[in-house]
Write a structure and sequence with these properties.
8 helices, five-stranded mixed sheet, 2 domains, D-Maltodextrin-Binding Protein, domain 2, Fructose-1,6-Bisphosphatase, Chain A, domain 1, 268 residues, alpha+beta, globular
């Protein structure tokens, strides 16, 4: 295993232990609303602090970007860790066991490795550039669907961008007509990982932040999948609009997004 990946796995497990002890026990932590439909808890902050301390203790000259704390360490470093301490905070607060610690690493802006850990199911997804992707140490690959027929596609309502809701529903209708079903799990990093291991055939979502996709992006690519924006390019690092799956599924999803006459241009 890549030595930096080893440290990231250790950090993810440490934060995961905190999550497992506290999930659903809202009497033991404080919940705040950062924005409408965007929660943060004292456990988010504890987990982020735990992960940051482990990473910066091992790599003192690195930079850490956390969802809750912003930038720590050496902001000029060529290495930047990107952390979501609890992806799926609403699930966590409600006691829904679909949450994850997400830790990605970029070197000079290029994705290098990713770790996504669901401590409730004890599932550790890992990948390093050029070394493949794994779930609990076993290699994983994206599914082999050749079209959207019979596929399960993960997505999410654009609750933080409600002005896009009508356009999203128009797109969803086209997808429902072309696939077996859609799924909305409330945890972007696990959606990406479920594509990487073939549980989902594809995934698309708008307005993601770097901590939502940075780890999962590496895992999907190392599992043989593609990750693009809604135009089939790499602009998702600016727009946060992500599409992923195997090449056939991504091409089919992009056709639904780009060529749909009833889909608002804001989705393109």
């Amino acid at each position: 295993m890549h030595p930096m990946l080893n440290i990231a796995v250790r950090a993810a497990r440490a934060a995961g232990n905190i999550i497992a002890r506290n999930i659903g026990h809202s009497d033991g932590f404080t919940v705040e609303e950062k924005n409408k439909d965007d929660l943060v808890t004292t456990i988010d902050r504890e987990c982020e602090s735990t992960v940051s301390q482990i990473l910066l203790k091992s790599y003192r000259d690195h930079c850490v970007l956390g969802e809750e704390s912003g930038v720590q360490g050496n902001a000029d470093s060529e290495y930047q860790w990107i952390i979501d301490p609890i992806d799926g905070t609403t699930n966590f607060v409600k006691g829904i066991p679909h949450v994850a610690v997400s830790i990605g690493l970029r070197q000079k802006g290029r994705p290098l490795l990713g770790v996504v850990f669901n401590p409730i199911l004890n599932e550790m997804f890992t990948a390093a550039r050029g070394e493949g992707a794994s779930l609990n140490g076993r290699r994983i690959r994206v599914g082999d669907a050749k079209s959207l027929d019979g596929t399960i596609i993960a997505t999410a309502y654009p609750v933080r961008y409600r002005q896009r809701m009508d356009a999203f529903f128009a797109l969803s209708r086209r997808l429902v007509d072309s696939t077996a079903d859609l799924r909305r799990s409330g945890c972007a990093s696990l959606d990406l990982c479920y594509v990487a291991c073939g549980r989902f055939d594809g995934y698309l979502e708008q307005g993601l932040k770097p901590w939502d996709y940075s780890a999962g992006e590496v895992i999907v690519r190392e599992a043989g999948g593609l990750v693009t924006d809604f135009m089939g390019e790499e602009g998702f690092r600016k727009t946060g609009n992500v599409v992923c799956g195997n090449p056939y599924v991504v091409r089919s999803l992009l056709t639904k997004v780009c060529n749909a006459p009833d889909v608002d241009p804001i989705l393109r």
